[in-house]
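Fold this complex.
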Amino acid sequence: MMYSRGSLVDLLIKSNVSRYAEFKNVSRILTYRHDNVEQVPCSRADVFASRQLSVVEKRKLMRFLTSCVEDTEEQQAYNGRPYLEFLRDQQLGDNLQHFLVHSIAMVTEDTPTEAGLASTRHFLRCLGRYGNTPFLFPVYGLGEIPQCFCRMCAVFGGIYCLRHSVHCVIVDQESNRCKAVIDIRGQRISCSHFVVEDGYVAAERKKVATPTRFISRAVLITDGSVLPTDSEQQVSMVTLPPIAAGSPSVKMVELCPSTMTCPPGTYLVHLTCQSTGSAYQDLSPLVTRMFHTPESHDQGKRPSVLWCLYFNMVDGSAVDCHNLPSNVHVCSGPDGELGHEHAITQAESIFRKILPQEEFCPPAPNPEDIIYDADTAEGDVLSRQTEE
Amino acid sequence: MHGRVKIKSTAQQEEEKRKEREKKLKVYVAVRDACFSKRKEGIWDDEALQLTQQLLSSNPDFATLWNYRREILMHLETVKDEDEVQKIYVAELSFLESCLKINPKSYGSWYHREWVSLRLPRPDWARELSLCDRCLSLDDRNFHCWDYRRMVVKMSAVPVDQELQFTDRLIGSNFSNYSSWHYRSTLLPLLHPVSPEPSSPCRKPPPTSSPPSPQTHSHRVCEEQLLKEYELVQNAFFTDPNDQSAWFYYRWLLGRAEREEMISCVYVSRDEERVAVAFSRPVNALSVGLLLVLDGQPQRVEWRSVHPRFKHSPVWICDFAPGTISDISNEHNLTVHWTEKPTRRDCALYTGRTESYCRDSATDQELFRSELSVEKTSVLQSELHSCNQLQELEPLNKWCLLTIILLMRALDPLGYEKETLDHFQTLRDVDTMRSEYYSDLCSKFMIENTIMKMEYAEVRVFSISDKKLTTLCHLDQLLLVTHINLSSNQLQRLPLEFAMLQCLEVLEAENNSLENLEGLYHLPKLEEVSLKNNKISTLADLQPLASCPKLKCLDLRGNPVTQIANLESELSELLPSVTDLLL
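Structure:
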């Protein structure tokens, strides 16, 4: 999932990498309460069309959404106090408070007001750039995005050696620099810099937040949408507030076949939250309630789960590596956030360390502006980075 | 190629672009000249089609070329068989699509598309409709497309309910869209007409027989549907109260019924041997077949409006031949026929009476209340309640305030007078750019209220002092008024329509800003005029008064005109009938 005004979208546009990708708008924001899936009205058109809100609520919501963009003294008075308290004092009512906290700001009830407002504003800034929700989803899935960058890199000479994963690195003791890597076939590849995912870094060189932060995830294939409409091609972002005190709030994405991630007639569902237990413990109660699974008690009209997988992974944002050669750069794995701010910042900072003089992801030139001249081959800066 | 990428410098690129442009221009000009010369020679061949296509595909706004193309196509129609013509026109349509991509608002392309569509032997209207939908989804306010779509809908007879769903869809995606709301207002009366029997529920297509009587309103919508529309439009203006389109649609929903056309008043005066007739709307009496019958005898009279500048007027007058009705011991029966409608009004002038009239008063007709339509009071009441709710949330929203005022007027104009005045004051403050508009509108409503009060009191005295009036209106309703008091307002002129006050004897207009008296024109009974403390500055401003034969008293104190030397003698020359002059 990408914020339509996030740093990833900006980077895709700036670098022209976007030409290799296609996107679909997330078409609606949903939330789950009182055992019901509801659409969250967030754009002007949604508010207008919403059937759950009274006209007075509509006015209050619109007024809040337009007024919260500006910093006011009234807001500052709530700094440090919970966002929910601030909203309550705006006389918004339960409905609107729920939408604003869980689905628009996507924070918890005790998040401080300034943070809640900041994420509300971010949501609003993203709204309407490409559609009626703030999110984009890359057709064929998020895996497309690194591929697109790789493709751009390859067009300008980057080389990829597939099935040559790194077995070990050769480090010059004196300079504490990585001289080369040896792949699993025993081939030595010299390098001036080595960029690697944190999964390859030995545990003793990693400093992990204690206790280790994990992300619980579930992937489901279902036979219907959690909120069916006339159109089967909805891409939904579902925010699920904690179902009980102490349980995590869950973000769920439901993808329709036109995102090219699942066969016609099915939906692909991702659920993600910060772990409090195992993925199964964290997520299966919710899945059982929202979908029809073998464990479900009743036979209510819910989509059936055709296939599911629960797993936990380390929260990439919580890992720090140390004691590494100076020219070894570590990328962290995925984190639990919706956007990709961390990955982009990290990529840029690694790039800066390697090539302090160069612009990060400059706009790729148009094909007709490139001069093809074989004799002038010089320098191999752009081309010699092998990435995992 | 493993080298660092070399990129052309900006200067290089510019130079190349410039050359490219030059080349393009050369080709363009050459092709254009070729087209023109071919047209001059009257050549209508495939090559000409190709050349114009080449130019139009880069510049679809070249109207002459579209004309040429039409000439060629019309020629081809005469020499090819139907299948070939169909093929040519289908190709033309797909070419037009590429032109619309270049300029979606090209007049030439849309016009040509309509032309082609209408000539196509076997048109595919469904395809055209979906093209329109695609265009409108890209720009829902492309009026070229709206126009074209109207033609397509008409030609392919798309059912009205389907079209209504179409507006639902557009309004749902963005309700700031006049075109959609307006389209809705044309569809609803077709789909849910008001049924002749007030109690029966909505019926689908309008009954073909029995045209609606003048009292029912053919462009109105049945109440059941209206309630749904109120809900829809309220959702819009609660979501965004600053968006005008929804408010305008709301005004239409609440909108007034068409007034019944009728003769609202006939007045006859023995002294002047004159008849004055008032109509419910301005008419040209010379062309509507007006017939005056006196005691069974059609009269040959000359109708004239109250001022020669009015070709259309709600009030018309005519004089009998001298001696026709002057004998006070005679009784007369008058009938005015409006033969075109047809409608008529009778009036009897009894023995011993110097004047007589017969009329439907404004209160009888609920003239001012039906400014909004004749909804059930309960519906209007609940609409007022919603608007008041919104106003509480948005106390300074002008659209909301104005709508509240209108609703209050529809419900109880006199009862809500104070609130109305307060809301007008707020409106003037929050929307200073239109404060004059609000002042005029407020004046209009105050005049309406005063007319109602006068009629309830059954008097012929119209008194509206100290109400901040900035304009005068509804003067046709004051045909019978003998005394008018306009003092202490903000009037700057007595407009020409003022001449409709055919019975006026006394005019009080102190403490205004009057500088123009053109409406005091041939008022046959006017005797007394007080213009104290106004802004009359020249003798010429007083000229109209010379046309009022019975003027005796004139108060001009506190006007700049009194500074003129010899004023008194000048005035006695200008207004010889005046005996009582205050300067």
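Residues 197-218 of chain B have pLDDT under 50 and may be disordered.
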